[in-house]
Amino acid sequence: MKRKRRAGSSPSVKESGRSLTPVSDDDSLRYGNNPIVVLKVGPKKTRFDVHKRQLCEASPFFEAAFNGNFREKAGTMNLVEDDVHAFEHFVRWVYERDMDIPLEGDKDHLMVRMRELIEVYLLADKYDIPALKNHIIQILFNAVKYGGDKKLHVLRIPSLEDVQYIYANTARGSTLQRFVIECMTWFVPFEMYLTEFVVNWLDRNPEIAADLATKFAFRLASGMALREAFPLNEVHPFAKGKDSSVFLEPIKSDHCSQQM
């Protein structure tokens, strides 16, 4: 899918000949006989030196690229469409299975962090890494569920611009699409959908409008028809006792070949 995109800690990231996070002697001992592959990211071809085994274990895309029948024999790949800052977070996750993108601070800071998380999710989607997508969803889920008061909840869900961006860059029905629709259904005040700006925005985004309508219908029907059978929080995905499992993807078995 063509991306309409805005133009952790890794063993080695280089930009214009300058090492941003150089490989230490300890790293050389830690990774042993594990060749380095070179990924040149973004329009400026920022260089990332990444251990091949870790990269291939994380992503079947890179496994096929560097170990498949049509592998990159030179051990170098250009990824000019990818976002460099998001790729740094991606590489950190490849090594540490963790990232440092806290959804904290004021509104402007939260918006920047939210876009960073979305960009990393898009990389995980592009390179077929459900574990990383699940990691992003878990961060977002925790931020929404444990974010504090209702006003803060609104700040910690993607903006309308981000929702539109997600729909433009992920497949129909993706986990991230489902997540943001649930957020908009349960945490955005009803009166906001009556404003001229949002009405016009929904007119321009019919897929989002259709998904919202479906979820609102389910929410209203559940609240009216099923209230006597069980509390409304039984259908609220962020209610007490609920976890993020409804939004998570199954993890595939290890796909990395032993070829180095």
List the helices and strands and how they pair.
Elements: E1 12-15, E2 18-19, H1 25-31, E3 36-41, E4 46-51, H2 52-58, H3 60-67, E5 76-79, H4 84-96, H5 107-126, H6 130-145, H7 150-155, H8 160-169, H9 175-187, H10 196-204, H11 206-225
Parallel strand pairs: 3-5
Antiparallel strand pairs: 1-2, 1-4, 3-4
Helix pairs in contact: 2-3, 4-5, 5-6, 6-9, 9-11
The major pleated sheet works out as:
5 strands, mixed
Mean pLDDT: 81
Radius of gyration: 21 Å
For the largest beta sheet, what order do the strands appear in spatially?
2-1-4-3-5
Coarse structural class: alpha+beta
| Proportion of residues in extended strands | 5-15%
Instruction: Give the % helix.
Output: 40-55%
Q: What is the β-strand count? A: 5
| Large-scale geometry | elongated
